[in-house]
Amino acid sequence: MKFVAFERNLQGTGASRRLRSAGKVPGIVYGAGEPKMIELDHNALYFALKKEAFHSSILEMELAGAEQKVLLRDFQMHPWKQQVLHIDFQRVDETTRVHKKVPLHYSGEENSVAVKTDKCLVAHVATEVEIECLAMQLPEFVAVDLSGLVKGQSLHVSDIKVPEGIKVVRHGTLNPVIVAATAPKIEEEAPEAAAAPAAPAKGGKGAPAKAAPAKTAAPAKDAKKK
């Protein structure tokens, strides 16, 4: 990808604030020589940052009529506005080795046994991976083929296949999961509620007769007085 940058002579908080008010973004490019203060058009940069390739591939920066190969290293956004506040680039050449996170592109899962036969759910646990390589070998993304995935299988960082000259970075003995195929949960049907006996219709045939009220005993007559 290509973009245009301009030399920036003024530095400091006040100068950067005036640049942002004018629709520009202050930045810096370093590595392979003296650091250079630059400025970029905000809107062009804002939409470039939405493209995946801008973050993970070698960029061609035009500065003062000359082209330089650079990598995006960092950028700062406003806490709540859609505004880029600052951006950093690194110059690279054929001898520069870089550590860079690149996105993972998954494919083939719809043709796997896990999905077609076992109706598994495939979770993409990781969306990017860190690699080490020469800057000129930096891939835009790393492809991961999931067509061989089976039920209950998990793929780890060590299972990623990359071209020769590119190394997937693992920190110590860590080997995190990047993809997992799990069987779908089967919801158990609730047991049918026991049918309640139907209440007899009022006054209908077969209705139990009402019990007659018990007769109370007549009170005994007073004994004759002697």
The overall average pLDDT, rounded, is 85
What Rg do the Cα atoms give? 38 Å
Helix/strand structural class: mainly beta
Uncertain segments are none
The coarse overall form would be: elongated
Give the strand line-up of the largest sheet.
1-3-2-6-5-4
Assign a percent range to the helix content: 10-25%
Order of helices and strands: EHEEHHEEEEHEEEEEE
Major beta sheet summary: 6 strands, mixed, barrel
Number of beta-strand segments? 13
Percent of sequence in beta strands: 35-45%
Separation, N- and C-terminal Cα atoms? 133 Å
What does this structure look like?
The structure is a single chain. It contains four helices and 13 strands. With 226 residues, the chain is mainly beta. The protein is elongated. The termini are far apart. The mean pLDDT is 85.
Q: Could you give a short description of this structure?
A:
This protein has 226 residues and is mostly beta strands.
For the structure shown, list the relevant keywords.
about 35% strand, 13 strands, about 230 residues, elongated, 4-stranded mixed sheet, 6-stranded mixed barrel, single chain, mainly beta
